[in-house]
Amino acid sequence: MITDSLASTDLAELVRSAEAAFARTDTPADLENAKAQFLGKSGRVTELMKGMAQLSVEDKKTRGAAINQAKQAIEAALTARRQALADAELARQLKAQALDVTLPGRQRGTGGLHPVSLAWERIEQIFGSMGFDVGDGPEVENDWFNFTALNNPPNHPARSMQDTFYVDMQGEDGQPYCLRTHTSPMQIRYATAHARKHAAALAAGEIPEVRVIVPGRTYRVDNDATHSPMFHQVEGLWLGENVSFKDLKVTYLNFCKAFFETDDLILRFRPSYFPFTEPSAE
What we know:
Elements: H1 9-23, H2 28-39, H3 44-50, H4 57-96, H5 115-129, E1 133-134, E2 140-142, H6 143-146, E3 166-170, E4 176-179, H7 185-197, H8 199-203, E5 210-219, E6 230-239, H9 245-260
Parallel strand pairs: 1-5
Antiparallel strand pairs: 2-4, 3-4, 5-6
Helix pairs in contact: 1-4, 2-4
């Protein structure tokens, strides 16, 4: 409020009018509009300052001091209202964004394995329970392991660029490398490593059994509604002195029963040609 030192009651009324106008505003924009009525270029305080031109020097000092005091009171009321509006807006935001600190904290989900990875792990677990090791080999394979050692001759259709992804590199034998078209190369790699490991037993006439599966990614130039250029495959190898086709059938039957969790299964085996197995079946 203006003090008693103001010489004119009209200035006191002007301050009260400004305070009332500021108090009626609800937003910063409304407050700026009210400010312009009193302190703007065409505001009431500015008009009073312009009207002092006709006053004497002595009256200008007295009147000017009183107007300045009124202006300061109006500016103080303006500042107070600005702060009040800012405090009210902050309170509104805090209320809208209020947090219940008694609630349990939010945790980021840990995610999960892809269905293919889950099936992969389950296959390894089931075959592991039947005594099979798990082999792993390179996905970029040389010609000998991918084709030749598996009885796929040089003119075999699988060696065609239309069936196989070839890599721009060659081995010491001059043969190209490719993305493996199956996990079968690990049959050769694992059996060879197994033979070196048990060389003494083989020399003594003993035949250490080989029992391994090889799950992994394989690649072929297939890309249509039912094929993908990359797919997963599980290869199996069982070498032993008394291992027969009967063992293969029993192994597959037991695996399928465990994997699909049912004993109500009938498997059909039908003859088929594969260059690296005899007899062969699907």
